[in-house]
Structures are given as structure tokens and as C-alpha cells.
Amino acid sequence: MGQSRLDQCGWSSFDPALFFDEPGRVARRAGPATHDMIRDFSPGQAVLELCCGGGALSIYLAQSGFDVTAVDLSEKMLNQFQKQMAGCDETTRNRLNLVRADVCAFDLGRQFDFIILEDDGLGYLLNAEDQQACMGRISRHLAPDGRCLLTNMTPDLEKTASKAFEYDRETHILTRPHHWTSTDAGGQRTVIHQGFERRYLYECGQLQRLIHSVGLEVFKRWGDLNRAPFKDPATQEYVLLIQHA
Ligand SMILES: C[S@@+](CC[C@H](N)C(=O)[O-])C[C@H]1O[C@@H](n2cnc3c(N)ncnc32)[C@H](O)[C@@H]1O
Questions:
Q1: What would the pLDDT profile of 185-208 be if each residue is shown by its tens digit?
Q2: Distance 204 CA to ligand 1 centre (A)
Q3: What is the pTM of this model?
Q4: Can you give the residue range of the structural domain that contains 39?
């Protein structure tokens, strides 16, 4: 069941080396902002990152002194994570614990001060049952005074529907091609990987209801990771800090 979730959302066909090796790629800058959120809002140092992918954020946080457990279902992604980890010093490596598991069904037997599901991880769960299962797992693994950072894209559906990708209004599922390009020294771009991604787009209020349904509540809400004010629900990224109700 777990593997088929990866197949459905498109991540099983993805080449994780692209997250690190592709020369034209601009590195994501989630690290410093997430570090500051943990510093400001977490009651402790124990961090859990769900859908950690190749580990860029988890490694950054471990290098900053947090103890990080990182979960992903993709073996290829976790192999890439391990390669990155091999280049880290021993103290950082000792702060990292990698677990291959499905975010809808994991049980780590302990709780965490801060849980992260960012980079639209929740969007890769394509139906209500999986979304509910994942939120339930989060609630169970969150310490009584812990906080969870959830980021989720909610693009303008009108604009989305008119572009080159497909959006199914009944299932709420957006399917779009991935074209990873490499840019050489002369500015020439070449497509080096093609795949697809499928993600679930939440309607306004739906995410909130999901959070409440597992006994959690929204504690803070921003428009981006740098804590810009939240403005228009139709076009913005939701950056939510949630806690036990
Ligand atoms: C956008 S990528 C994360 C990339 C990561 N933020 C980074 O910078 O490397 C989404 C990740 O979600 C993982 N994923 C998707 N569905 C999952 C599931 N049901 N359980 C665990 N991981 C899942 C994929 O394997 C993929 O690594």
C-alpha cells in the first residue's frame, strides 16, 4: 500500500540526485527560517521531519544542534540522504536518525517537541483517508506541549486550471509534468529529467477541519516561512504552526 502511494503521487519515478547535483538548481532556503521557528516555538530539541526527501533540511537542523528523526518512504531518497550524511562530521551524523516509513502508518514509539511536514508533503496524500491517517500519526507523535510546522500550497484554482497541467475539480488532484533542466555556462537549457507529480489541493477551511478532526488546533498562521502575514487564501502558501487543542 505504501509503495503505491509513492507511485500515485509520482515520487517513485523521481531521480533524487537532481535535488543536489543539477547545476542549474537554486537551493531551497528553508533551513534558516525553520531553525528560527524551532528556536522560537519548540519546547525542546527533539525534531521529527516527515517526507524528508534527500535530507537537506534535516541535515541543516542537525548541524544547528537539533536531534532529528527523518522519515520518508522512498528508498532512493533515503539513499541520497545517506550519501549527503556521509560528508557530515560525526557529531552531526550522531544527531540524525533515518527511518523508512509511510507517513500514513508510522509508529516510532515516542513523541517529539517539533514535527515538520513542509514542502507540501501533505499534498502528496491524495485522498481523505490517507490525509486523516497522517494527521492522526502527527497528533500521536507530538509531545503534549509540542508544535508542528505544516506548509501547504494552495494555488489559485482558476489560474491553475487554465495552464498546461490538469486539475480535477472532483478529486481535487492536480497533475503536472516535471521538467528538470540543466543550464550550461552559455545559458543553454537542456531537459535532463521528465516525470510527473500529482498533488491534492486543499480548499479554504478544509485543512483547518482536518487539523481539528485529530484533536489539534492552529496556533499561528503565516503566508510564508519567513512569517509574512497571511493574506489571500486562494493564492498563498499556508504556513501553519499547530499544537494539541
Ligand atoms: C517534495 S519531496 C521532499 C523533498 C525534501 N523537502 C527535500 O528538500 O529534499 C516529497 C517527499 O515526500 C515523500 N513521500 C511522498 N509520499 C510519502 C508517504 N506516503 N510516506 C512517506 N514519504 C512520502 C517522497 O518520497 C519525497 O521524498
A1: 787 777 767 778 898 988 768 889
A2: 23
A3: 0.91
A4: 2-155+203-244
